[in-house]
Task: inverse folding
């Protein structure tokens, strides 16, 4: 009896692992397709073909294109939170804040992310999902912890609360129109990231003078 | 014959003026209702009632609620452009930029505008309209002129182009989530406006030292 149960568990464990692995494979293919053609041109048909599975199997894993997008954005969000937490805690908090904004500005121009940043109507729908809100709030809190430390260390100019520093950082990072500047040839992605990081640093940092 | 034509022109001129005046009256009522209840709760029925006209007459002026919203946003956009152009040109350009961002941050918390800022899905649709894009571009150019003057006067820190200064100013102003800070009791509207203006000024201004 117990042996039988274990066998069933092992079998379903294996099946669950296989299922998860196929889900990962699908997501990888979806990311590659997104980077190649962007969100709007991505179809479930093409994705199934790329992975070498039937449409039915694909729909077994993801209910819709939007479902895939939400999963992708959640993976990005988790990566973001991990990156923030991975920053050397011995660095001065103001340097950690600058590193965060620089990284966030750079990463949005990488092919896969760019496909999402440019798919605005889709993004607007995802942003309303509770799962995304929760990840967004966790990311904001991770930044808030560092902003608090910067205020405590006397590195933030007077008149700016740490909540305001987080708000400003996210306002700068979340604006969807840097891509238009790049498209118009007014700046390269690297120049945009550098300018925004520089501006942010100068704007929040307490000056040593007087 | 000529007299008759003049009479017809005068008559249609009068009719056109009456039509425009009624359009203004409707918009004023719409603004008041928006400030009271917000965009989502506004109905064409209630608006017609408030103005004291039939629904049919209302629809003769505005095809839809969205149509009214677009008209309102266009009026705001024009006001914004006029306000920018009305700033004393003898002021140092950097002071003019600070004045613009302060004004834009303050005005969004006035009741009528707040109703729009909070009606995001509606705003997303309006933003796609060519008429709005055109007004947005004109506003950006008005700011760009001042940013160019600030660069020319040596008031902007090195490494920031005037295009980037405009981009950053608009990214800060266009973020929809300051309201969440205010709702959460983390800052008053005046504090938000002051902080963002202070941060912007410090972030773009060239330091006098070294």
Result:
């Amino acid at each position: 009896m117990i042996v039988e149960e274990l066998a069933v568990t092992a079998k379903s464990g294996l099946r669950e692992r296989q299922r998860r692995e196929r889900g990962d494979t699908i997501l990888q293919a979806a990311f590659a397709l997104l980077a190649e053609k962007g969100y709007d041109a991505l179809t479930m048909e093409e994705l199934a073909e790329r992975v070498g599975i039937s449409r039915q199997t694909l729909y077994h894993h993801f209910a819709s294109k939007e479902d895939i997008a939400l999963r992708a954005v959640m993976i990005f969000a988790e990566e973001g939170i991990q990156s923030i937490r991975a920053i050397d805690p011995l660095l001065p908090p103001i340097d950690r804040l600058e590193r965060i904004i620089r990284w966030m500005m750079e990463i949005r121009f990488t092919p896969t992310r760019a496909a999402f940043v440019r798919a605005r109507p889709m993004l607007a729908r995802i942003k309303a999902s509770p799962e995304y809100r929760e990840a967004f709030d966790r990311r904001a809190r991770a930044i808030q912890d560092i902003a608090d430390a910067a205020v405590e260390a006397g590195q933030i100019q007077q008149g700016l609360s740490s909540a305001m520093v987080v708000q400003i950082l996210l306002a700068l990072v979340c604006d969807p129109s840097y891509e238009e500047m790049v498209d118009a040839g007014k700046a390269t992605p690297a120049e945009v990231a550098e300018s925004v990081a520089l501006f942010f640093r100068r704007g929040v940092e307490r000056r040593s003078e007087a």
Observations:
- Chain B touches chain A through 34 residues (CB under 8 Å).
- Residues 66 and 79 of chain B are 20 Å apart (CA to CA).
- Chain B has two domains: 1-63, 66-210.
